Automatic annotation (TrEMBL):
Protein name: GGDEF domain-containing protein
Natural source organism: Paractinoplanes ovalisporus
Domain GGDEF: 378-515
Matching SUPFAM superfamilies: Nucleotide cyclase, TPR-like
Xref: Gene3D superfamilies: 3.30.70.270, Tetratricopeptide repeat domain
NCBIfam families with a match to the protein in the record: GGDEF (TIGR00254)
Regions annotated as coiled coil: none
Length: 530
């Protein structure tokens, strides 16, 4: 039995080290919680519970970790426990990264740094900034990420924590590689190796995985296979239990083996990665395994199978972006205490709710705003807009031209909608599909106005951009009063069926009203309808 002072020190050891062997660390944290309860110290209880949550997340039980987090987070906020709250947001950031939610991961990582104060340990000062850099890189903001990695690196020198620098550099190299900056990633990896040699540090599985990925990017597939096999062997020997480590290592091994032309070995590695992703509900990596399967089929010359695998990948990607979002645990939005920090947070929030290509609102924003509008506005109308024969533009011209068309269509929709419905907005739902939202505009009136928008798209001078290929849109319109149910899925489903009718009826047209017997299909029921 530990007294309060010794229990505090024991918990600090759990909190301020990178623990990979999740199962025994979880058991230790559970024992510490029992002792804290006997002492009647609620803060120690909360800290022990957070350590358990972190280990559950690392062991792959991400959903359970997220569910348990709420109570600890609420206690920390209610009792103004700044250091504990900062640690909570760091774990929240990791959970959302596992779930593939870059925006939520970034918000929590920013909050974890903002909450640092004089009570924060040296480990927290370094690692929270390094993990903020990770989240920024995961969200695609590499310049701010580099600034945070540099800041964390300087702190390891100032605070004399060279071993922690090993992992800061590893994360930095990995982030540059993930962003496609292979030369810069190799430079950071060289610094990492030099640090290891200088201090006699043995490279563990995490670092070897980074090196293997960089070797693959440089086309050194034989070296990459050996590195990844060593990585997996080392990882297995230490019985580490990161939620996403082994699936990612196996996926990288499969990629290296595909590069070598060792297709059977690659398939075996990929199958095991996919199994682990499914078992641990790792949506982000599961999508990547589907994509790799398509690449592997194509490398074998199995083009029909590659096409089918690509369809599975595309479907999984869409589910990741929409359905899984509703299943993710959400916490309250991060708020910063200084004006500058609040402005930075708002910039990040706005960035997370905008489509990077078109600048329109994205599906996240739509999912936040549309349910409220449906509940409060009986005259709300929505219109699903889909480009006709868009695949032809990509195939005959290029994807770059396709992107230019999407950007121009987005501008036309936004400009025209502002005249028709000043309170409305346009969102990109994905691919060549958009949604126009018209508050206070019943479908009986909206149909005529939306048809004018359709004509504006067709009338635009596309000749120079598309080399004579026409650009038109089909639109399905639905009002709240016409929806199958007064919910977001019900309203969008009705508009979707009207979009199918517009496609089936010849394209370049608007269909509104309640779907009749000849419009029982959804647009998504027929892939050929595009």
């Amino acid at each position: 039995m530990l007294d309060a002072e010794r229990l505090n020190a024991a918990l600090l050891e759990l909190e301020d080290e990178i623990h990979w062997d999740a199962a025994p660390t979880l058991e230790l944290a559970q024992r510490y919680e029992r002792q804290a309860r006997l002492l009647g110290d609620e803060l120690l209880v909360a800290r022990a519970r957070l350590s358990q949550i972190n280990m559950r997340m690392r062991a792959g039980d991400v959903a359970e970790a997220a569910q348990r987090m709420w109570h600890v987070h609420q206690w920390a906020v209610d009792h103004d426990a700044h250091q504990l709250t900062a640690r909570i947001h760091l774990v929240w950031a990791a959970i959302h990264r596992h779930l593939g939610d870059a925006a939520q991961s970034l918000e929590h990582a920013v909050r974890s740094v903002e909450l640092l104060d004089d009570t924060a340990t040296d480990f927290m000062q370094i690692w929270h900034r390094a993990k903020l850099a990770d989240s920024l890189a995961f969200a695609g903001s590499m310049e701010p990420a580099r600034e945070r990695f540099s800041q964390a690196e300087r702190l390891t020198v100032e605070l004399d924590r060279p071993f922690l620098l090993l992992y800061v550099l590893n994360n930095y190299a990995y982030s540059e590689h993930a962003a496609g900056n292979f030369a810069l990633a190799a430079e950071v990896a060289t610094r990492l190796r030099a640090l290891s040699a200088k201090h006699g540090y043995e490279l563990d599985a995490t670092v070897l995985d980074t090196i293997g990925a960089i070797e693959m990017s440089n086309g050194h597939f034989a070296e990459a296979e050996r590195t990844m096999q060593a990585c997996i062997e080392k990882y297995s020997s230490f019985r580490r239990h990161d939620a996403d480590a082994m699936p990612e290592y196996l996926l990288n091994l499969a990629r290296a083996q595909r590069g070598l032309g060792a297709y059977e070995r690659a398939q075996s590695s990929l199958d095991e990665s996919r199994r682990l992703c499914a078992d641990r509900e790792l949506g982000h990596f599961l999508v990547q395994t589907h994509q790799e399967q398509a690449e592997l089929h194509a490398a074998r010359g199995e083009f029909a199978e590659a096409y089918e695998a690509h369809k599975v990948f595309f479907s999984a990607y869409n589910r990741l972006q929409s359905g899984q979002r509703e299943a993710q645990a959400r916490t309250r939005q991060a708020m910063f205490e200084t004006t500058e920090a609040r402005q930075e947070a708002e910039r990040f929030r706005e960035q997370a709710r905008r489509d990077p290509l078109t600048g329109l609102r994205n599906r996240r924003y739509l999912d936040e705003q549309l349910p409220r509008l449906i509940d409060n506005d009986p005259e709300l109308t929505v219109a699903i807009v889909d480009l006709d024969h868009f695949k032809r533009i990509n195939d005959q011209l290029s994807h770059d031209v396709g992107d230019q068309v999407l950007v121009q269509v987005a501008k036309l929709l936004e400009t025209e909608l502002a005249v028709v419905s000043p309170e409305g907005f346009v969102a990109r739902m994905g691919g060549e599909e958009f949604l126009m939202v018209l508050p206070g505009c019943p479908a009986s009136r909206a149909g005529h106005e939306i048809d004018g928008i359709r004509r504006a798209v067709r009338a635009y001078d596309w000749a120079e951009m598309t080399r004579g290929l026409p650009v038109t849109v089909s639109i399905g319109v639905a009002g709240v009063s016409e929806a199958e149910s007064r919910t977001q899925p019900g309203l969008l489903s009705t508009a979707d069926r009207n979009l199918y009718a517009a496609k089936h009826g010849g394209r370049d047209r608007v269909v509104c009203g309640v779907p009749g017997p000849d419009r029982t299909h959804s647009y998504r029921d027929r892939a050929s309808a595009a």
